[in-house]
Automatic annotation (TrEMBL):
Gene: LOC105224963
The organism's place on the tree of life at top rank: Eukaryota
Alphabetized UniProt keyword annotations: Membrane, Transmembrane, Transmembrane helix, Transport
A single GO molecular function term of this UniProt record: transmembrane transporter activity
A GO cellular-component term linked to this record: membrane
SUPFAM superfamilies in alphabetical order: MFS general substrate transporter (SSF103473)
Natural source organism: Bactrocera dorsalis
Domain Major facilitator superfamily (MFS) profile: 40-520
Membrane topology reported for the UniProt record: Multi-pass membrane protein
UniProt protein name: Synaptic vesicle glycoprotein 2A-like
Residue intervals passing through the bilayer: 38-65, 77-97, 106-125, 131-151, 163-186, 206-225, 305-330, 380-401, 408-428, 434-453, 465-485, 497-515
Length: 523
């Protein structure tokens, strides 16, 4: 079986304009911006919020489940990052399928399987069962990165960045629910013995399921929504693309019919038609599959895109080292600070000194573990403050992104929030240090801005793959960040801040090297 890819340059196609034809951007503008776009932005925000709920919920579970699952610091590091291992294992795969089979099909099917795995993980009776099921969850939930390409391709360049940032506001609103859900569910006192499964079903298990429910809802709604019209045009399905645009127009404008006879591709669009010859007995499907995947990936590392790809991947890596990796220890660290403030009012200590004292109290010299059945109430307060700051930052960025520019916003975001994180390790007032520590994690806003930049810098047939590859590298950072933080937390806590903040400052200046215009010459 052989693979042939035919590419037709859009500029060649557009030399001759027939009456009644439009470029894709012109046709998209005719649909107007209305109800369909608002629904899509809402769903996109819920999808990205699902990723946060599924990956971050474990941070609230670990301090409570450590006795039941007999977790050491090493075990906590593994459990806090195993979702990201699954994400890395499949990011390339979902990027390939999204660019070849369609964004919509990948999204709804994988979100459904991710929810099922979450339900099963809530019944895990030991550490390794939980590890396996959370890996499966991460393997399928990683497809959520495709949503940036899906959302972006329903919007013209003029409204695309704002749509992505508005979806980020929805995402942060969903993420804001995490500490609220944790407070309402985790701190309850009931227990349901399930002797046939050898577990006691406690509130933290229900918490996992509740955090997975938005993924189930998104799966159902995306199943109803249409495929990206730009993707359909890219694979040569012009008739279906017109039908999607007409559906958008009906949703946005009522019953009035949008009359389009022919759509021409934009200058950033190549019409790519993969053709597979019939399989014969000697065909090696796996080999052809890998060759096709490589043909979809290789352009990202060729001269035209190499510098862009390297810079974006570096920034994603270090931002997610902090925003995801170190964040896995946030509930435990902030809970220790809250307990210290409560037990020693008015006393001053640096954040890492408090962490050292907590480690000594938690793990006894005789090998036993001090059981924590509830988190301190102010821990949820600080988590909520963080999510409110996320939402506020996304709203501000969404309002100014077209006026100020994405690259400048990315630079300022990284510099400001990283400075807060570095300052927090030196402040001896634990209340001020706690607020600065919270501000540090808002550096995660940079990932959404970077995703908007990524969509602009790559053509249609590479966008989903570019997003998935860069975020896959970012998830490697999440794994590295959580495990390195766990290894350093007990005796070298300060180095978590020195290493991560230093690298983030370098990334801020790397962002300035990204082109002000994309490779197609669009502003």
């Amino acid at each position: 079986m052989a693979t042939t890819i035919f590419t037709l340059d859009a500029k060649t196609v557009n030399r001759i304009r027939e009456p009644g034809t439009y470029t894709f951007t012109e046709a998209l503008a005719l649909t107007n911006f209305g109800k369909f776009n608002y629904i899509l932005i809402l769903i996109s925000g819920l999808v990205t919020g699902t990723m946060v709920l599924e990956t971050s919920s474990i941070g609230f579970v670990l301090p409570i489940a450590q006795c039941e699952l007999q977790l050491t610091n090493r075990d906590k590091g593994i459990l806090s990052t195993i979702n990201f291992v699954g994400i890395i294992a499949s990011s390339h795969l979902w990027g390939f399928f999204a660019d070849t089979k369609g964004r919509r099909h990948v999204l709804w099917s994988t979100l459904l399987v991710a929810f099922v795995s979450t339900v099963f993980s809530s019944f895990a009776h030991n550490f390794w069962t939980m590890v396996l099921l959370r890996f499966v969850n991460g393997f399928f939930v990683s497809s959520t990165t495709v949503i940036y390409a899906y959302l972006g391709e329903f919007h013209a360049p003029k409204t695309r960045s704002r749509a992505i940032m508005c979806s980020a506001v929805i995402f942060s609103a969903v993420a804001m629910l995490l500490p609220m859900i944790a407070y309402l569910v985790i701190n309850q006192d009931w227990v349901l013995p399930l002797t046939f499964l050898r577990i006691n079903y406690r509130p933290w298990r229900v918490f996992l399921i509740v955090c997975g429910v938005p993924g189930l809802l998104c799966s159902i709604i995306i199943y109803i929504l249409p495929e990206s019209p730009k993707f359909l045009l890219t694979i040569g399905e012009e008739t279906k693309a017109i039908q999607v645009l007409q559906k958008m127009h009906r949703w946005n404008n009522g019953k009035e019919t949008l009359r389009i006879t022919h759509i021409l591709p934009d200058d950033d669009t190549s019409i790519i038609t993969p053709k597979f010859n019939n399989c014969d007995s000697n065909s090696n499907f796996a080999l052809v599959f890998l060759q096709t995947m490589w043909s979809q990936t290789a352009p990202l590392f060729q001269r035209k895109y190499l510098q862009i790809t390297v810079i974006i991947c570096n920034i994603q890596f270090w931002v997610l080292v902090a925003a995801n990796g170190l964040y896995m220890w946030f509930p435990q660290t902030i809970n220790s600070m809250v307990a210290f403030i409560k037990e020693h009012p008015g006393e001053h200590k640096q954040i890492c000194e408090i962490v050292y004292d907590q480690q000594d109290a938690l793990y006894k010299t005789d090998g036993t573990i001090e059981c924590v059945t509830k988190l301190e109430t102010p821990t949820f307060y600080y988590s909520l403050i963080m999510e409110i700051l996320y939402a506020s930052s996304f709203a501000v960025v969404g309002f100014i992104i077209n006026r100020v520019g994405k690259i400048l916003i990315l630079f300022i975001t990284i510099i400001f929030f990283t400075s807060c994180g570095l300052a927090s390790v030196f402040i001896v007032n634990p209340v001020i240090a706690a607020y600065l520590y919270v501000l540090f994690f808002v550096v995660g806003v940079a990932t959404i801005v970077l995703n908007a930049i990524t969509i602009d810098l790559y053509p249609t047939h590479l966008r989903a793959m570019a997003s998935c590859i860069s975020l896959m590298v970012g998830r490697v950072g999440s794994i590295a960040g959580a495990n390195v933080a766990g290894a350093l937390m007990g005796q070298h806590c300060e180095w978590n801040f020195y290493i991560y903040c230093g690298a983030l400052f370098v990334c801020a200046f790397l962002a300035l090297l990204l082109a002000r215009k994309n490779v197609h010459g669009e502003s």
